[in-house]
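Section handout 9: paired folding examples.
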Amino acid sequence: ALNNGNTTSALASLMAATSADPTNAEAWSQLGYVHALRGDADQGIAEMWKAVGLAPREWWSYRELADMLAYLHRYPEELQALQQALTIAPNDPAITWRSAQALLQMQRPAEAIAQLLPAVERLPMDARLALMLGRAYIRQGDEEKAIGAFQKVLAVSSTSANLNSVARELADSNIRLDD
């Protein structure tokens, strides 16, 4: 029902599913998603947190919650969910990337850098982490380190997408390269 955009039918199905099996974390997460889509964000988020409580060792439950919180621009709560996910998967680059993104949304670049640096050292071939590190350095006002991070991105992977991302970051920040 939800795939067809029918949130009323999806809501009824998911409420029945959570009534029939109150321990069904996926049903609670989806019910929260539907409630949030229907405009009841607080109820939806509470239901998604319930799903996390039912599946505390499952990354997907945190990811779905974090996705909704980011969509709702509730970055401190998104960061809380992601920090909890890091306890499950402390070396997962996706969680680190998402946490840094939330920190940058909250204007906390120093914390984003502190989180990204060990990840970039651990995964030197991850261009996405290096790009996020460059963004964090820009937000902190350190152009030299930002350029260094962007050079690392291009050294690791000079795809057109990465070239465009680096060019956009530099242009948006009015950083000019001398050579």
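Moving on to protein 2 of 2.
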Amino acid sequence: QLEGIKKGLGHPAVKAAGAALVVTGGAMFALGKAAIDSASQMENFLVQLEVLLKDSGLAKERLDELFKIGSTTPFELGDLVQADVIIQGFGQDANVLRRGVMDLAGALDKDLSEAASAVAKSMAVGKQGSDGLRESFALLYTDVLKRAKVLGDPLDVKIWQQAMTEALTAVDGVVAGGTD
């Protein structure tokens, strides 16, 4: 009987079935690992937002909102979370600036975090702290400068912030629709 089993194990169909089991097992392991990694990433994003917003309920709402945005734009969830962290970290309202920052990155084919950083720094410090914006996002910088001059003194941080907000939220702004 042992001889029959040995012969059966050498049969090509049995070898193929064994190989298929190994491949399937490996794929299932990879799928399980990916699910764990994804859950871990989501938890990490949630913790970042909880620290930033100081409220777990608000953090969960924000993560849900960013997840929806990520499913309808070219940006990954991690990039969206990072951009929100940067904007909020500089004391600005990410809910107000997010769409404009996304359009800025999309229109100029730039990294979302880079766009968020340039905008947030410029908003926090004003025209004097806008080197990154001027160098990497000259189109927006020029628009903000023009708007600030109409509002008053471009060196006034409050005027600069207002001009930046207008430039990023205007439906006819220079970067409007850059994500579309």
